[in-house]
């Protein structure tokens, strides 16, 4: 099968779709949709991703004209898979069209999965953290509505992570604490609590509200009686003391000591650097 064959199929489908159907016979839109789909798959095999995506979209438009909305949603998703190879924005647009249909049909679990795909494109392909955060938040809400708790939490943690990177610490704290609270009685999730509390605690300190940060750490110790004895809790308390004393040396020492046993990732390092810089600002004013 050649690209020439795909072009011929599209030309026939275009003609079929715009023809007058006065005669009794087959559905012109159905026939056009079949030809567009075949052409789209030929382009897909040839790795002509843009042409494949465009042609899948034409097939979906025919299916919409026939009110075959489930089929149209699937075809828009196929279009997005082709577009993802060449045009992230077109991939998102196709997924959004599919999601409109899925939510109309009450298929929120499937809609959430594709909303998560959109978030992933914003995160990895377009590196737009604000849009990624918004998309993950919608996916989390839909998953939660379908009682898919683990998937909702996964998306919520993404929201928290990006919110902190964007300096929206209150939002990050809310999401980290929400997942932590929901994980308290879950034996599979309990091992992650100290990580959620650490991240939420760092966000509290980064807001510059020391009283609120102290209260938060105390609250985490009440929520989970084992947290107080963890290195994560001791680390939060030591850097809080350094912040309270405007002691950059003590702060740096605490960070180095923690990092030697538990390697700090880029996310924590960035927030710790912001906290350290704020100590420098405060001490320079004295």
TrEMBL record:
Keyword Transport: yes
Listed GO CC annotations: SNARE complex; vacuolar membrane
InterPro entries in the cross-refs: NSF_attach, TPR-like_helical_dom_sf
GO BP field: intracellular protein transport; SNARE complex disassembly
Record bears the keyword Magnesium: no
Any matching Pfam family: SNAP
Record's keyword terms, sorted: ER-Golgi transport, Membrane, Protein transport, Transport
Superkingdom of origin organism: Eukaryota
Membrane topology listed for this record: Peripheral membrane protein
Cell compartment(s), UniProt: Membrane
GO molecular function annotation: soluble NSF attachment protein activity; syntaxin binding
Entry function: Required for vesicular transport between the endoplasmic reticulum and the Golgi apparatus.
Family: Belongs to the SNAP family.
Alphabetical list of PANTHER family matching this protein: ALPHA-SOLUBLE NSF ATTACHMENT PROTEIN, SOLUBLE NSF ATTACHMENT PROTEIN SNAP
Stated name of the protein: Alpha-soluble NSF attachment protein
Species name: Mortierella polycephala
